[in-house]
Amino acid sequence: MFASLPLAALGDLPPVTTEMAVVFVLVAITLVLFVTEALPLDVTAILVMVTLMVLQDWTNISVTEGLSGFSNPATITVLAMLILSNGISRSGVVQIIGRYMSAFAGTNKHRQLASTILATGPASGFINNTPVVAILVPVISDLAHKGGTSPSKLLMPLSFASMLGGMLTLIGTSTNILASQTAERIGTERGVEALHAFSMFEFTHLGAIVLVVGAAYLMTIGYWLLPERVPPEEDYLAEYDMQDYLSEVVVQASSPLVGKTVSEAIDEQRFDADVLQLVRGGERFIEPIGQKVIKPGDVLTIRTDRETLGAIANVDDLALTGAPETDPELEPSTEEAEQTLVELVIQSGSSLVGETLQSSSFRGRYDANVLAYRSRGETVRQRMDELKLRVGDTLLIQAPEDSIDRLSQSPDFILAHEPDEPDYRTEKIPYAVATIVGVIGAATLLPINIVVSALAGVVAMVATGVLRPGEIYESVDWNVIFLLAGVIPLGIALEQTGGAELLGALVASTGQFLPAIGVLWVFYMATSLITGVISNNASVVLMIPVAVEASLEVGANPFAFVLAVTFAASTAFMTPVGYQTNLFVYGPGGYKFSDYVRVGMPLQLLLSFVTVAGIAFFWTL
């Protein structure tokens, strides 16, 4: 299997037809839209689906085929698994495991890292890995702060460990489920016996090796490469460099603001500033204070830069008193504090994605002020109202305790810290765990398809009270569902027009100077690079048909090539945008784009050799 491939196996390249050209153009446009995020990913996917059907004469995609993504078993299975994962989350079982691991770790930095990996990796094999990270971000952040460790040292390993653990089973990640269905469909349509749907533990042995190797890297080289972007001390004002953006002013008796409400106080068309709190006679007033009437002597805390503050003070006759950075009321919460500073991460599927702080009426909706936020590694402190929010953006907010409690229950956010009194349904843990075990057992031991057992599990969770009926719809990340439904027809079009065959033949031409295992490695790396800039699910849909065609061209095992693409797409370490879990830790970890390259690239390269060698050994080429 390590011998060079005969040139005769390559054959002649098929000619480029009009149909192929149309589909290639659509693929190129899709990639550009995914990379630039000019439209939300799910909207792009639906646009592609509609275009494929409109151009049916060239794409060979009928209306039935165009809509097939919605009824695809992979889409329904992912939907069901998201609901099951939410049931596990609401029971609190993963959080409780995380707390036990935190107690074990204490202040020992190596134990903290080991606990993060041990709590995340195995759990991600049996619960969709994206919700696992969303569940554990606050647990691990608290572990870091309490243990005197920079959260930057633990949060990226949290994301990476979830991806590694997701390769333990079929249900660990939506990518595995989609790859399984795609392989089965192509095998049936092309009559390729080697291609079949993955069983529950089809690649667990290789996944375990990948997890161990990845964990060893994260514990040694990776830990050394990780920066300490966020200080161990829990001081958000210093972390976000807010000292020059928070100031106190005293309202003079001659000020034109006297008699106006707080919401009328500042001309937002002219000045980029917010009034965060009002102090009168030693009493503090915080959100909601919009309708509070300003009186002489009131002390206002204003969020703005120094230059704008000077202009406001001059126009409105305000006396400057200085920055309130030492004010305990603006520090993270204590038992006596009336308000709290906390970080919120925008969840995938959040209703705020694509909105601005202004269009979403954030302040009135959540009784909270946004002091700053991080987006794709950039900290924004000015002109925030008009910037569109994206998945992974991290907001630094100031809000009363009761507002924080409400925010912790919202599916729109991941709180970077656990609430003091989390509302878990611990009495439902036995039912939640039994349901997951039942789903896995039925799909493994009985002749029941995973989609059937997963849907049965959803019914069981509702029947046992783990989930309430209305929470089923809140559990689903509809962005992922529409993304799957939209890109699946694109993969079908690539096959039916012969585009996959052409691309496969081109890649197979590397067999002239590479052994079969070398061609397999080329596919692994190509998929890794593509996944780094677009959705992992989209890369699987596009790459598996090409990989199958290339394997058939060179006379290799197509199933081995499918596995290489699957592993590569499910372990995207090199960029923060290649996988949702990387986005979830981007802001709370204070990372820069280059941090993912520095830590993730060596790991990606290491695992490329480990994975490809493992596939060649276990499945042969």
Automatic annotation (TrEMBL):
Q: Quote any Pfam family the record assigns.
A: CitMHS
Limits of the RCK C-terminal domain: 234-318, 328-413
Is Repeat among this UniProt entry's keywords? yes
Q: Where in the cell is it found?
A: Membrane
Where does the sequence pass through the membrane? 20-36, 43-61, 73-93, 154-172, 203-226, 431-464, 476-495, 502-523, 560-579, 599-619
Q: Which PANTHER family match?
A: BASIC AMINO ACID ANTIPORTER YFCC-RELATED (PTHR43652)
Q: Which SUPFAM superfamilies match?
A: TrkA C-terminal domain-like
Question: Tell me, what is an example of a GO biological process annotation in this record?
Answer: potassium ion transport
Q: What is this entry's stated membrane topology?
A: Multi-pass membrane protein
Quote one Gene Ontology molecular function term: monoatomic cation transmembrane transporter activity
User: This protein is called what?
Assistant: DASS family transport protein
Entry GO CC: plasma membrane
Q: Does the keyword Methyltransferase apply?
A: no
Its chief place of residence is membrane
Organism source for this protein? Answer: Halobacterium hubeiense
Q: Which UniProt keywords apply?
A: Membrane, Repeat, Transmembrane, Transmembrane helix, Transport
